[in-house]
Amino acid sequence: MKIQCLEISNWRSIKSLRLELQDLTIFIGQNNNGKSNILNALLFFFGEIKHTEHDFNDCETELYVEVTFCCLDDFDQTQFQKYVTAGGEIKMRKTGHRGGTADLCGYLELPADENLREEAMANFTTIEKRQTLPFADQLPAGRVSQEQLRTSLATYVEANRAALAFDYQLETTPFFGAKSIGQSMFGEILYIPAVTVAASELAVKGNSMFNKLYSRVATKISETNPLYQQASAALAALVNSMNRTNPDGSPNIDRPVELTRLEDLIGDQLQAWKSKLEIEFTAPHVEDAVKLETSVLVHDGIRTDIDRKGNGLQRSLVFALIKAWAVIIREEREKRRAEAGEDGPKRGASHSTYFIFEEPELFLHPQAQRELFASLKELSQADNQVFLTTHSSSFVNLEDHKSIVIVHKNDFVEGTTVVQCNEELYQQEDERRLFALQLLINPERSESFFAKKVIIVEGPTEKAVIPFLAKKLGVFKHEYSFIEAGSKEDLTRYIHLFNCFQIRYVVVYDKDHQAGKKPRDLTRADEVSQHLEDKINAAYGSSVVFDNDIEEELGVAIHGKPKPFMAVKQVAADGYALPARLEQKLRTIYA
To answer: CATH fold of 2-21+29-190, please?
Structure first.
């Protein structure tokens, strides 16, 4: 079972939001735009956190998080049969109310004809009324129970699903009719915040990741290791020998007299209250007893606890635990599938796994970031889902463009919004491969997804000169990214990309009207320029045009190679005067 769609309403900075989630979903964007709020909405849905008064957007009194699950296996289809749609999905809503209460309800696909709904069967108590039902001929003669009515109704609806009209609506009663049944049925959450203490994840008690891993391993040991089984039996026998009664309820005549005397001494003091004291012992699990004196140390040449290691190693250790967890989960799934056989359920209840990370790249150098991203991508391809926020361009890859979610918060009124591109970016295979190759050669171009604005130029000379002159003018902005496309044709590919993701951009290109050009060449140059202009979406992009080329704009003749270096050398020389026309264009570029 996997999350297909997430809808959020009135949660923190989010007024209303709907987005599709992939096996790997990457939330990027400026700080304080709402990336973490989206992850926390998921944590609220899964019961990992409770809502408070501060979680409601503005003055709202109700918030909710809706999750649509797809990819239900045989077990899920049976487990959630009541909620499964004809398309094989289930949709759940968790609603939070001011005051602290929360409800979990599911959506039901109900026949539009209210007489074909389960609750309506109570109205068909007589033979005359039952004869009006479209499945009356399937009912037994004589007395018919409500259970028989409901069974026949379900059979009829399923057999005639294609011909019936349905309403999809939120149920008015709790999920499965019981408040105690909750989010744990949907799978397991592993959440790693941006700032986490590695020592807490290595703790051998509580809800730490190491404790979860250790507990799973201990369970396997308890099933196969005879020494473990002997120790468990001996510990149980020791504890039982200290209680007043044996496990079968008979008096324990071998109980230590010291315990009985202690009870009697305290009981004598309670006689005036007509009360007495009894001491009862419960045998602990062997793994709990072992944990009492368990330490986890890290050896990197010096054997110490993790608190004494650097932040990078601590962060790496947390992800080592995650990867170990993923291996164990995969082994358990394979074992369950093998035991179930071809016709049995594919897994047990609630074994879908969702990994949620905030800024996993923290404290890691660039190469380690890229290696980590490869590991997380591999994790998402192993029947898990991975959701993360990041500020690292190493985590942005156009091969996975459907995984990218750009998060914005333009103002408080609109709140947090998102942009996704769930369509194919480029329809032709050759075009996709060529553009992917360009990005592979120039990986820094992924940085543009984090920029407030992208400046796209044709060649390396413009990329070298324009920022240099902008700094001299005092208009340079670090939050703007610079991309050298390579050609006018490639400019259109970047324009298309940024239109799809609604990234603001300005295109700087040459009109190519150099002196001496033939009329047909000028016409062709104008056609190419017009084609480029037609691609620009004015909602996100604009253009600045050089009449001929960068040399004429600068008012210099560039001799020698490399051309970008020679151009910068000339404009940096004492006495160089920036043409007023070019100055205005530079100010427009950086506006």
So the answer is: Rossmann fold (3.40.50)
